[in-house]
Amino acid sequence: MTDDSTISAEFSVLPITIPPLPSYPVQATHYIYLRRNAPKIATANDTRSLFLANVPSDSTEAHFRALFTSLVGAGRFESITFEQDKNTAISSPEPAQAARLAALHKKRKREDEETQSAKDEAAARLPDTWARRLHRSGSTAVALLADEKSVDSVLKAVRKLKKSKKYPVWGEGVKDKAPPLGSQWLRAHNKLSYPGNDVVQAAVDAYFTVFNRREEEAVQLAKRLRNEPDEDGFVTVTRGGRAAPARRDEAEEAKKKMLEKQQKKKDDMQNFYRFQLRERRKAEQADLLKRFAEDKKKVQAMKEKRGKFRPET
């Protein structure tokens, strides 16, 4: 366990009492560090959110609901998002073409279509094999409270704990609201690891339903984007007779040929200009020689006209 001497001053320290367990019959103190949530990309709920660091590994929403209730009373806590929930989100079927084109064009759907799509994607996921997830040591979370006033109340209550030394007991008031750990947890995992054939078949059918729908959306979207240039002014290269865009290697090859053609044209123009320059220099040199010869003839004619010079004695 760490104390508040090793944490930044911007965090408040929330000590909690870990009760003795059969496997470890010693009472311990755990420190949770919290501050106002201030992510790099701001959201509408930042003012009523708290960023928590060093959450216990057995944390659940029920545990934090009971914890905040003991601090500021019921009705202040709404929900919590753990680091694991953000980093290990279950991926849904994402065809290659749909993933590549989704960033180019987004079309708003009707509410009923969005609801149906969410249901299909949820049905496409295999059931979870753990009745309760554990978090890695030192992980983080974001707690959403009712309003900004609730955030102030929590921070104020945390500061008072340091003086009273009466720390909240972790897990107190949870009871049956969270699945148990220990041997029951492992037995539940073993049971959930072998779902029935009907459950697996239903998930597979739902998966391909979502996959086929997204493939169709990708084809329709490719038709609309066939003649639309991208940000750099390039038009997506397509193969004859196919509505979807060409593969990435084909597009790169076409781009390479186009650049080579432009470079060749540029070199030809440069050579053409060099030829003109050489011809102009030759003409200037010939004109210079011609004028020199003419001047030489004039000087000779003047000498012959004036005759031989005889100085006076």
TrEMBL record:
GO terms for biological process: ribosomal small subunit assembly; rRNA processing. Residues 241-267 are annotated as: Disordered. Residues 192-312 form the Ribosomal RNA-processing protein 7 C-terminal domain. One of its GO terms (cellular component) is UTP-C complex. Pfam families: RRM_Rrp7, RRP7. Residues 246-267 have a biased composition (Basic and acidic residues). Residues 11-189 form the Rrp7 RRM-like N-terminal domain. InterPro entries: RRM_Rrp7, RRP7, RRP7_C. Belongs to the RRP7 family. This is RRM domain-containing protein. It comes from Monosporascus ibericus.
